[in-house]
Amino acid sequence: MNFVKFSPRLWFLLGFIGCCSLLGAGAYMQFVEELEPCPLCISQRLAILATGIIFLLAALHNKGYKAYAIGAAVSALIGAGISARHVWLQHLPPDQVPECGPGLEYVFQHFPLTETIKLMLSGTGECSQIEGVFLGLSIPGWTFIAFLMLAAFSLLTIWLKAKTDESRG
């Protein structure tokens, strides 16, 4: 299969499907495997959702593919930064792990929005717990890789479109 012949819209649709798959995996882990997401997990899901929405808009809209590609890449790289922080927290020595905070439901009801966002992006002691490992990487480690792949996938659209235009021109 020649990937160069893919239209940007189809490429973005595939990116959207990838984001939906990641969100589905997160929902499975939460509701079937009963792994309660920590603040950083929820922040990563929001970054996946934002990236997926950008991919969907790009697939539906037939103009400005470069702007959508860059927007999706930025969103994915923000998510990668959150995942990197999560992995870093998981590898801290026990005496350097931050204290566990109140539950997110309590935080949303009683804290100002700026404090809630700070907590969701910085993480708490519960974020340092490793709930599962696959091939030597924790869930946030795999999420980090997924974000990097989504960013690369998005930016690859620009290169593929240029190659397609070159071969036609």
TrEMBL record:
Disulfide bonds join C38-C41. It is found in: Cell inner membrane. InterPro entries: DiS_bond_form_DsbB/BdbC, Disulphide_bond_form_DsbB, DsbB, DsbB-like_sf. It comes from the Bacteria. Keywords: Cell inner membrane, Cell membrane, Chaperone, Disulfide bond, Electron transport, Membrane, Oxidoreductase, Redox-active center, Transmembrane, Transmembrane helix, Transport. The chain crosses the membrane at residues 12-30, 42-60, 67-88, 139-160. It holds the Pfam family DsbB. It comes from Methylomonas methanica (strain DSM 25384 / MC09). GO terms for cellular component: plasma membrane. GO terms for molecular function: electron transfer activity; protein-disulfide reductase activity. It is a multi-pass membrane protein. Its main location: membrane. Residues 1-11, 161-169 are cytoplasmic. Residues 29-46 are periplasmic. Belongs to the DsbB family. GO terms for biological process: protein folding. Required for disulfide bond formation in some periplasmic proteins. Acts by oxidizing the DsbA protein. This is Disulfide bond formation protein B.
